[in-house]
Amino acid sequence: MFIELIKFNLSSSYFVHRGNFYCQKSGTAMGNPLSPALADLVMETLLDHVLEGIDIPIPFLKKYVDDLITALPIDMIEHVRNALNEFNSHIQFTCEMENNNQLPYLDMLLIRTAQQKIVTDWYKKPVASGRILNYFSFHPLTQKLNTATGFIGRVFKLSTCRSENEKKELVRDYLLNNNYSSSLINRLINRYINKNTNTHESNSSTHPEPKMYRSLHHVEKLTPALAKVINRNFPNVQLGFKCVKTNRLLFSKLKDATPQLEKRNVIYRIPCADCDCAYIGLTTQQLKNRLSGHRSLINRYADLKSSDPNRATEREEEFKKTALMVHVIENEHRFDLPGTKILEQDNRLNALQVLEMCHIFCDTKTVNYRTDTSNLSVVYSGLLHSITNGER
């Protein structure tokens, strides 16, 4: 059953481009959550199968995803590579051999000394741009500091052939080119060294409180202020920050956009055709289906009113299922369903419900009931009140 579920998941992935549907024919699609786990599983299966058929001792073999490093006699290199490539025609390996007693592997350069010992150095490819997260990029300061600290850790841990001063100079040059200041770089280096030399730190809490993890969008000045308040009042909450200005905004989308009427999990606004009012609603189904429901209810009431006005009056309460229908019945107005606009889209229902209340609160000409915002937190109410009154 598990294998059948995986096959179904992999065979049902598709996208639309210029009106044409494309399906993944081989392997897994980029971005598929299953891809990393299945790639690792395939590599383990491949190695187990191939190594069983190789009759020579292999001193060591290390793997990181699809990158392998091993030691082999020179005359057996092609034999082993051919065995790996024969496992599947879609999985083909290239081979990089030791050159001048050096062999790069991931971010590390292995160097064989004259004493037949292995020392390592931090390594970057010749085509590497030298860029990491720039200090002036639109990201939370904590992410920039963590990026720089992570880079310092890689250089110090991987460069066993360098002195401490050489490591510091390498780090300084790299971070200066990414607009980190000299004073900040020195503080980060000293903090890293002190943290790794002090190995006797004690844990003050034997039973730490379980952590809760939440994320916030990064808004300059606002997000750090909110984070301070949350950290002060809820020390067990661990915050993460998401950047809203990503590289995705710079590139055109290759996949066709989902038509407006086929979008799900949206907040929509339907303008009235006879006045300045509008109706704001939320739907988790396709928007066209929700609008079809509105249209059907309006048409049923109109047909009943035209055929039997008295009966329509008697059954008015049955049709007043939404504020939209109340406006139609009490004011005899029509709604411009084709003019519907999507205000928000989010796959989280809780977020949609809050956003719907926010839009109803801010729209002074909506026909929605004021009670629709009764569950809106006073924190949001105060903030939205300031926004609607033009305060900043």
UniProtKB/TrEMBL annotation:
Coiled coil: none annotated. Pfam families: HTH_animal (PF26215). Residues 1-127 form the Reverse transcriptase domain. PANTHER family: REVERSE TRANSCRIPTASE, REVERSE TRANSCRIPTASE DOMAIN-CONTAINING PROTEIN. This is Reverse transcriptase domain-containing protein. The lineage of its organism: Eukaryota, Metazoa, Ecdysozoa, Arthropoda, Hexapoda.
